[in-house]
UniProtKB/TrEMBL annotation:
SMART domains: UBA. GO terms for molecular function: serine-type endopeptidase activity. Residues 318-358 form the UBA domain. Gene3D superfamilies: DNA helicase RuvA subunit, C-terminal domain (1.10.8.10), Rhomboid-like (1.20.1540.10). It comes from Elysia chlorotica. Keywords: Membrane, Transmembrane, Transmembrane helix. The chain crosses the membrane at residues 15-37, 57-79, 91-113, 125-142. InterPro entries: Rhomboid-like_sf, UBA, UBA-like_sf. GO terms for cellular component: membrane. It is found in: Membrane. This is UBA domain-containing protein. Its main location: membrane. It is a multi-pass membrane protein. The lineage of its organism: Eukaryota, Metazoa, Spiralia, Lophotrochozoa, Mollusca.
Length: 360
């Protein structure tokens, strides 16, 4: 499973930065100084009869509507975790391939609509066909962790992304059609129906030619792979994830350590929440989730309780056997887990950081 939480900002995500800058700059250009060129980005269901394939292609890379730009930009930023997970080159390959598949599905949908004389307005413009296929790995790979409840409905860290998607889909029927084709293309790519992931392939000779012209020369001869993955070469800064299924984490050692830390922290947080729910009202909380006497902004301001905490520090802290067992199951030794819990005052998050720092 892929951790939703991660470092903020654009570290290790050059493609995400390029997409966001491109979306904002093109919107400003074609809204103010180049407004008279907006007709080049509009197409409808008669795209084949009116020979509007060029307009259909251009509409997939430019935003002309401000709400669509804002909502899609938020989704692109939140989906940057997949660029860190797979690497920039494979991330771009996935986006381009699913966009092409979504465009083909749109043409099929236009044919069905024309056959039954169902008319729609102009299709929306923007990166819908590139972004919305990422909802498929987002739903399947990112774990669902309930943070709170509103009127009995659990709210997770993924809720905001789903709300943004539903807001965009519910705006117009034309937008709903484009989004549905994009999500369906993500499903087909994920399931590799009819070998779609290998269908867009080129001979090794052609792939090595593109790789030599656009990026650094490979140390080993390239194998047959995706068309877009070959053509993009290695001109991006971040490399793609390894092909081996035995390394399901980040593309570099640093990313792997950070993602492992995120996953362990998430497991500890879930265990703490579950322990919190099992406690009765009025029952004193165990040290594993009790932060009242801890340092920092969560410390207790009562001087009497602070004095008691200082007296307790003189004694050897009792280690939570449950937390020790959890660390042992994660691969740490029993002695190291106990020492980390004593040093961190039975704080599982701090203990996790100490254990991972010892490994680096």
């Amino acid at each position: 499973m892929l951790a939703l939480a991660g470092p903020a900002g654009f570290y290790g995500t050059p493609v995400t930065k390029v997409l966001l800058c491109h979306a904002v700059i093109t919107y400003l250009l074609f809204t103010f100084p180049l407004q008279h060129f907006q007709h080049l980005f509009h197409y409808n269901q008669d795209v084949l009869q009116k020979q509007q394939l060029k307009r259909m292609f251009l509409s997939k890379i430019v935003f002309l509507d401000l709400p669509d730009l804002m909502f899609t930009s938020l989704l692109i930023y939140n989906f940057r975790i997949f660029e860190r997970r797979f690497g920039s080159r494979k991330f771009v390959s996935h986006m381009i391939a699913t966009a092409v598949m979504a465009s083909i599905l749109e043409l099929v949908a236009f044919g069905v609509l024309n056959r039954y004389n169902i008319r729609l307005a102009d299709m929306p413009t923007g990166l819908f066909s590139c972004v919305f296929p990422l909802y498929v790995p987002f739903y399947l790979s990112v774990p669902r962790v309930a943070l709170t409840r509103i009127m009995g409905v659990p709210v997770t860290g993924k809720t905001l992304n789903y709300i943004l998607g539903l807001q965009m889909v519910s705006s117009e029927v034309e937008t709903m059609l484009v989004v549905l084709c994009a999500v369906l293309s993500g499903i087909l790519w994920r399931a590799n129906v009819l070998g779609l992931q290998k269908l867009l392939s080129v001979p090794p000779l052609v792939g090595s030619l593109f790789d030599h012209c656009l990026g650094r020369r490979r140390s080993v001869p390239p194998r047959g792979g995706g068309l877009f993955e070959h053509c993009l070469g290695r001109y991006l800064e971040a490399a793609s994830a390894p092909r081996s299924s035995q390394l399901p984490m980040g593309a570099t050692l640093e990313l792997q350590q950070r993602e492992r830390l995120d996953r362990i922290e998430q497991q500890m947080m879930m265990s703490a929440l579950q322990a919190n729910r099992r406690m009765n009202i009025g029952r004193p909380q165990p040290l594993v989730v009790n932060l009242a006497n801890g340092p920092g902004i969560f410390g207790n301001a009562n001087p009497n309780q602070n004095g008691e905490a200082q007296q307790d520090d003189a004694n050897v802290l009792a280690v939570s056997e449950e937390q020790v067992q959890r660390f042992v199951e994660m691969g740490f030794s029993d002695s190291r887990a106990r020492q980390a819990l004593r040093t961190s005052n039975n704080n599982p998050r701090l203990a996790t950081n100490l254990l991972l720092q010892d490994m680096s």
